[in-house]
Design brief:
The protein is an alpha/beta fold. It is about 40% helix and about 15% strand. The chain has 16 helices and 12 strands. It has helices at about 15-25, 40-50, 70-75, 120, 125-135, 145-155, 175-185, 205-220, 230-240, 295-305, 305-315, 320-325, 330, 340-345, 355-375, 375-395, and strands at about 5-10, 35-40, 60-65, 75-80, 105-110, 115-120, 165, 245-250, 265-270, 275-280, 280-285, 345-350. It is globular, with a radius of gyration of 21 Å. This is Extracellular solute-binding protein. It comes from Paractinoplanes pyxinae. InterPro entries: Bact_solute-bd_prot1, SBP.
């Protein structure tokens, strides 16, 4: 790469990203590049709503796939060639593909959501016997949401510092929204009907809100403090041994990889109850305002090679490449690498719709009311009306 201005990477604040970028850039002699990591709300405000993608401050953007349809349609991202398309599973290529068929980013950090659980608790003979005596069936990773609720109730022991489960309740339009969509889809519901109207008036939507409201406010198997936790914070608390299980991004199992972690060697992964897995991931993209798009694209290609992907995993991120998933160094880090290919075959993502930021805001407000105010169906009804009006006055 030629000697020019310093390339600036902007992304999300996360220890794994900071460690991986620091290590990776150190492995690229002659490359003058640095990074700035922002809280996810600030990153969204700067990129989706602001001018970071166009004003020349950023040469590379690390973005969640949720934002891509809006950014691609508005011309805020430039297409980037992918020299190794088969290196990634199809589910890790499609969300950065525009309507024009061009690729607008390369996967850097992977989901999807899985069921993460404490293997030491689930394998304990006393826990198994006690659970079976109370609920009438064996203790094992749940295959439906009724079993999930039973197990959360069984393990919820706040007086001993153990909660039934962890949820990320902070209203940042991400995990709180993803949780709702996972429940909606697993119950056969759809956010937007085939006629382009809101699907929030369905029985499935009602069941989804009832279930989440129940975890927070009826069974109370979630630490109330989790209302202020985002996805990363929820993963940190699980890795600290504060809950028996959770549905969350598979990468958070890697937080227990440190031998000093209280949950080291005690975390297992299984499919999400209901067999619907949420898929969202982080990609490296070239913003329209990049000062030298070719240099930006070349940097992205060098940061997403097999060697660099392994370094991402070793630093606490999640590898995205198939050859990395098969690498013994990566497989030894966390249990989810054994199931990623399978999990991605049954994954869904948020609607590939340029209106997603506005849609997400509607669902975010609904879930904020569910978590913070104990609202249930009233919040759902309000969201249905707001979403239906939004969809009627706009077109995808």
């Amino acid at each position: 790469m030629n000697d020019g201005h310093r390339l600036e990477i902007f992304g999300r604040a996360f220890d794994g990203f900071e460690r991986s970028l620091t290590d990776q850039l150190a492995q690229l002699p002659g490359v003058d590049a640095g990074y700035q990591l922002l809280e996810i709300e600030d990153l969204q405000r700067e990129v989706v709503e602001g001018s970071l993608a166009t004003d020349g401050r950023a040469d590379v953007l690390m973005l969640i796939t949720d934002w891509l349809p809006s950014l691609i349609e508005s011309g805020k991202l430039l297409p980037i060639g992918n020299p190794e398309p088969d290196a990634w599973a199809p589910a890790l290529r499609e969300l950065q593909t525009g309507k024009d068929g061009q690729t607008y980013g390369i996967a850097y950090h992977d989901g999807p959501m899985l069921f993460l659980y404490r293997t030491d608790l689930y394998a304990d003979p006393k826990e198994q016997q006690g659970f079976a005596d109370r609920f009438g069936y064996p203790l094992a990773p749940p295959t439906d949401w009724t079993q999930f609720r039973d197990q959360a109730v069984w393990f919820d022991r706040p007086s001993t510092g153990l909660r039934g489960t962890v949820l990320a309740g902070y209203p940042d339009e991400h995990n709180n929204v993803y949780d709702f969509l996972t429940h909606l889809w697993s119950r056969g519901g759809e956010l937007i009907t085939s006629g382009g109207r809101s699907g929030l008036d369905s029985a499935a939507a009602g069941e989804a809100v009832d279930f989440l409201h129940g975890l927070w406010h009826v069974d109370r198997v979630v630490d109330p403090a989790a209302a202020a936790w985002d996805s990363v914070s929820s993963g940190v608390h699980f890795a600290a041994g504060e809950a028996a299980m959770m549905v969350n991004w598979c990468g958070f199992a890697a937080m227990s990889a440190d031998p000093g972690s209280p949950t080291h060697g005690k975390v297992g992964c299984a499919p999400t109850p209901g067999a619907v897995t949420m898929n969202a991931y982080w990609v490296l993209t070239v913003p329209a305002g990049a000062r030298d798009p070719e240099r930006s694209a070349e940097l992205i290609r060098r940061l997403t090679t097999h060697d660099m992907d392994v370094r991402t995993a070793l630093a606490g991120g999640s590898a995205t490449r198939r050859d990395s998933w098969a690498d013994p160094r990566v497989r030894a880090l966390a249990p989810y690498y054994d199931v990623l290919e399978q999990a991605h075959q049954h994954s869904r993502s948020v609607p590939v719709d340029p209106r997603w930021p506005q849609i997400a805001a509607v669902l975010n407000e609904m879930m904020r009311a569910v978590v913070e105010e104990g609202a249930g169906r009233t919040a759902l009804d309000k969201a249905h009306g707001t979403l239906d009006a939004l969809l009627l006055r706009t077109k995808a």
